[in-house]
Each structure stands twice: as C-alpha cells, then as structure tokens.
Amino acid sequence: MPREASRGLNSAINVCRLRGAQMTPLRQGVLKALWSADRPLGAYDLRDLVEKAFDRQIPAPSIYRILDFLCEQGVATRIESLNAYVACGHPERDHACVFLVCEACGDATEIENPKVEKLISEDAKRLGFVVKHQVVEMSGLCAPCQQAS
Question: 48, exposed or middle or buried, with CB in 10 Å at 0-12, 13-18, 19+?
C-alpha cells in the first residue's frame, strides 16, 4: 500500500476511534481496499478483494452494512452515478464532497473548494433547507480520456 494510502487509512481508523465507532478487522479490510484502489469500487468488487484478503467468503449484505457504516462515519463516500465507493481523503473534518467523474474510464477525482461549499450552504439556508448529506458529482471526460479520443 502506498505511503499516502497507509496514512489515509490510519487517519480514518483514528477518526472512527475518536468518535467511539468500532473498527472491526472486516471494516478495516474494506477501508483498506478502498484506500488501495486506484478507482471507485462497487460493493461486489470490494467483496472479492476482502474475501481474498481474509481467505473466507463474506456475504454481500455484510459488505453493504460495512459500506453504510463507513459512509456514516465520513471515512468513505458513495458516488451515486457509478454506484461505487471511494475512501475520504480528509475524514477528520466535515466537508462537502465534490467529484469530477469521467464517463469513459469511471475515474472519480474529489476536489475541495470552500467557495463552492459556502455557496451551496448559503443557498440551502436561504431556502430554509437543512442539508444532511452532500455529494456533488460532475460528469465529463478526464484529461487522459480526452487525449485518447
């Protein structure tokens, strides 16, 4: 596992512990698979990776429960348009998730922009809307896919 991924995994595990959330070995295994991936992963892809790592079968509902837990803790995010998951790069702080999703290769890159977060927050407040969960997805083509076409 690359150094950055290892640091991210440890940070996420620490955040969960500080919140009093139990990080079982299986939950850590799913999170490690997300951190090790170079693209968003679906639940069945994750199940295959974790089954290999643990050398045992894991029911799909267990993977979905773990993914729900990881998303609730803010250490993973579901990318709706891909029906896939990614590890959160900064779980220690509450923030909006904004993704650029490539329609060709399925890559998703998270961007941070406090100005965008502020605009969305202000508009929601003005409309009397309480945001509980925010994931913004923009689809298009990443630079490598643009060059390939």
Answer: middle
The confidence score (pLDDT) of residue 28 equals 93
Average the pLDDT over 90-101 and give the result: 79
Q: What is the pLDDT of residues 58-94, one digit of tens each?
A: 999 999 999 999 999 989 999 999 999 999 877 776 7
State the pTM of this model: 0.86
Pick the CATH number of 3-87 from 1.10.150.130, 3.55.10.10, 1.10.10.10, 1.20.1440.230: 1.10.10.10
Q: What is the DSSP letter of 28?
A: H
Query: Who's near 49: CB < 8 A, 6+ residues apart?
Result: 33, 41
Three-state SS at 115: helix
What residues have CB less than 8 Å from 62, skipping those under 6 apart? 26
Give residue 104's Cα distance to chain centre: 20
